[in-house]
Amino acid sequence: MTVPAPPDRHVIIIGSGPAGLTAALYAARANLKPLLVEGLDAGGQLMLTTMVENWPGFRDGIMGPDLMADMRAQAERFGTEILESTITKVDLQHRPFTLTLANERTLTTEALIIATGASARWLEIGSDRKLSGHGVSTCATCDGYFFKGKPIAVVGGGDSALEEAIYLTKFASKVSLIHRRDALRGSKIMQDKAFANPKIEFVWDSEVAEVKDVEKGEVTGLVLRNLKSGALTELPLDGLFIAIGHTPNTSLFRGQIELDGNGYIVTRDGTKTNVPGVFAAGDVQDHVYRQAVTAAGSGCMAAIDAERYLESLP
Amino acid sequence: MASDKVKTFTDGNFDQETKNGVVLVDFWAEWCGPCRRLAPTVDALASEFDGRMTVAKLNVDENPAVPGRFMIRGIPTLLLFKDGQVAETLVGLASKEDISRLIEKHIS
User: Fold this and answer.
1) Residue A205 per-residue DSSP state
2) pTM to 2 decimals?
3) Which of A178, A208, A262, B81 has the fewest CB atoms within 10 Å, counting from its CB?
């Protein structure tokens, strides 16, 4: 009979946005020697932003990428080990849990904190994905530069759509904001800013039926469908930015952990999932608040929950 | 700092540098968060494929002509050239393992 090998880690954290890094900070300070696996989009959604004006403590705002660099350094200062890799497979049915990295190395851990966040949602009309990087984008701060003096559109009606539209007016000659309804969902302050911007034009009650021109390999215009009349119109332009919300990054865990109808991890009693020892924090389990500060808060909770779980083990 | 194995391409030297062999070009800019994230991966690829392939970066801010010619409207974008022709296009982030696999297909 062989004695099973001890787990590699007490706790592993997957994800490196505000939730993951705050969980790492607290776990490191609790002497749990956490390992954090960064994932592909290291730093999370704040890496795609410019000035963050609602992170408490920075009265003049802070650049998203700078905030994430500081959070990372702070987590490392207390002993978090950060792995620049991605997880390709997890086994949460057996204990300790086993994670497989992109290079096929495996790691075992007693507790797991999932903070894999959410990624921008696409229109899923085919033509949008095909023209990704050739005029269709989900990242205004990355790609706005390529549309200097050109007409473009933003799809969406929430705060992020308004923020992107306003940001893009720095480059574009005109920004058409396409929204499915006849009123915006975004906050009052963002709506006022958008309505006051002379470069933003609103296209109400409409959805994108097609992005042209896949054959040419570049964006030449949109086919818009009016949802009230059903009428199709063409809008010639050079670029399309999609800001219609996010989908949680949970495909790795499907079938092993309870997810809700939209794919979010179900948490109860703090950050606990239905698998004891597995905790979830941030946007991967929150489709309501979705703020950097709430993600960080739940990351802290997950670290404390994981610490208590580890203490309760025989 | 970028690895010394990674070359710097410009609008001026691009055609000359990509004419022969297999060349991986990383289109990037200072203000692009994901580009910064991809940089260490590109450095690592330059070491992994040292002697078998050229790896280079092109700053799209300073060199607008080449990205215009290849209709690049988003970064980071990686283009893999084989004897001056585009063999692979990769938009956005990808893992080192995935990029390596793509490169291997074109290196005999």
Assistant:
1) S
2) 0.83
3) A262
